Amino acid sequence: MNKNELLQDGQTLAANLPSTHGLHQCLADAGYTVAGRHHIDSRAARHAPVPEGLHPTVAERLATLHPDGLYLHQARALRIHLAGDDVCVSTGTASGKSLTFMAAATHTLRSDPAARVLVMYPAKALMTDQLIHWKRFLEPLDMRLAVIDGSVPVRERKELLMRRRLVLMTPDVVHAWLMGHLADPAIRAFRESLRLVVLDEAHVYDGVFGTNMAFLLRRLQAVSGPFRLLSSTATLGDPSGFMQELTGRFHEIVGTEDEGARRHGKDILLVRRTRPDGVDGAPELLRRLAQEGGSRFIAFGDSRRQVELVTAGACRRRAGSDTEDGSEPDSEEVPVDLSEGILPYRAGYENVDRTRIQEALTQGTLRGVVATSALEMGIDIGEVDLVVLLDTPSSMKSLWQRIGRAGRRSHGCCIWLDGRAAVPDGDEGLQEYLSRPVEPNWLYLGNRYAQFGNALCAASEIRQVDGALDRFHFATLPGEFLAFLGNELNPTAPVATDLYPMKQEAQDDPRRAFPLRNGIEKSFRITTRQGDSRGEINLPQALREAYPGAVYYYMARPHRVVRVNHREGQILVQPERHVTTKPNLFTMAFPDFGAGLHSLERFPDGFLAETTLQVSERVMGFREKRGRNETTHVYGPGSTFSQQPMTRFIQTTGVCWSFGTAAAMSDRVGHAILSAFAVLQGIQPRDLGVGRFSSASGPGGQGPVTGVCIFDNANGSLRLTERLPRLFREVLACALQTARQQGEVDLVQALLLLEQETENGTVVPAEGPRSDVIGIGTAPGQDWTRIFAAGSAAMHLTEAGAQEVTVREAIYTPAGLQYLLDHPTPEVRWMVGADTLQPIHGVSVFSLYNMMTGERRLAA
Fold this sequence. Notes:
The chain is α/β, with parallel strands linked by helices and 860 residues long. The chain contains 24 helices and 37 strands. The longest helix has 18 residues, at 724-741.
């Protein structure tokens, strides 16, 4: 780097960032002190000539935009593309990856007058932002594009496909609309002429979303003409392996070693809270940073609730609003003052609100924004020199994405609030933490629920094109998917009992039944009494944010949930004063230690097992805090909000442990193990759950057992916890280290007890889950049927939700097997169909019923 560039970096730092004194004063006033520093050096740009072989008009456009040449990684990526290979650009934030897409797309269209190009963005907000850059690049070339997202009326989409050869879409529209109308002439012409597919921000395709995206890409390849792939990702642990798993195709990787973009210097400040008052200092810090002036900032939080509450706290004017003792007033609403120049940003906002925030960011009218991971992607947010991490991110991938948002055009700074003390104090401790490797992305192509849902989609698509489909692209998927697909096209075996509800739900349109992002979780639309929308939310989120009586925050403004209509997927809210609520959420797991056992390790006084299980999450009421006063509300007959608990019931997998020492099975230990496992494996903690488990018998058939369970928080299970048994000692050591750093003496002692309990283990071979287990209503022998016994507990599943019930009697009727259930009102006769009841592992009791003689006996 030359002297002028170094001087420019120093001048930019002085001009745009708060002064060193001002920044440290903001931290001190909010109760923070610097515990560690790390500096990232600036780096000079490296250029290369525009590659030969590009269409002359495209090469001329690149030369005009970049007279000094392209960045090294841009030029190499284009050379690989021109050679006919798939390529993935895995370089840093703001390194100019988009220019590679634009050059490759326009070259493809200019070289082949019949070619079509599809560009997929994982988020509508990102696509809207990138549209501006596309238009700037295309205009001198006299080329146009089309944008098709969920807001474009269906009747206009086909016309856009016919008029434009370059189309930007979200994967959701490709999945739900394009793949559902393959025989339409406009869509047929588009897919058969498809020659290039671009995947921007491919690292976002992780977990449920990524798994379904992997199936979608193979389904798209199977019905389209031969196309090449050009992708970008953030820095990943194994980009080559990930792209092959995501697409089924080998990619040449252009990585950080090829990166040619100039990198500005950056400072990372690790800070600790110094005031022992138990008050979150983040709102005060953000308010002072906004008032200080100078640079604009982005503050990142890991949860929607945290983002909303921190923004609300930062924007609330305390002068003249607080009571004399510093608590919040009980009788008067404290308004959120958005004139402070700080807004929240998260998923679930209405399009108009999201657009307003993005425009304010780009135009520079906001001092700062508090965001979830929704702003980790490459949305252009203008000059942002300061990033604030409200807590330590759950993965190194997320950490570097967030840090990379600062100083994209000048020297940057990151303030890291490490409230959980996950990072050791001192410069060396911070450096050691930052040197950790970036985790690979996780896809779960072996998940049978994802396989079956996508097999239903693929079978529908094969029928649309009359079988004219290239099944070669499915060869990279697990054999179980191919078996599901084959059975859908040529049925030879009955659909498994646990999959049959999915089959029923998919009858009209499997793509609508199984969206890409949420699996099969119930979604809710939140509205006011006046019909104004306050966004969308799924059931797991609703259990934590929008349960009956909850105070739900939208754009930092509080709303009271007055009604939840599970059947219609609607939540009604009304404005509320600034109070907070927390759900009384109880989680109970019911493991299947028999047929569902995946792995087992025995210890002298307990066991550690991975198994299939059921999880019941219930909100029984909530706690409400107004200032320093807290009240508790319990659902029931006298409740003004709900007469019964709000429940979620899922089939999943998890890891259970049970030992003789009660302290080793406490909820605190469970949460500590979950957090450590999430950190080590790069999993979002919200994708996992922790709770107590109960079973009538243990893995070896011993008497009733209870313990702690960490489970996959997704219906059908992605088996996120599969590695936990093998890594349990390493995870336990990480949890111990964190507990010691945070000074949690009682938790340290409990974890040490668990460490002692898990010594001298013996791995016991497990048969694995079996598919031949006798189900409810099936015949284990001649004329005998397995049914719920009188007095047995069961789970009643309907469109209105899940509810635990007690079976009074099984009755055979002309309509089939029915069950008489106990009703809260004794005189009410409550009869339900057998297909609406689900057994609870380790709890439900069964009988055998002889359909010929009427004889009943207890099932084994």
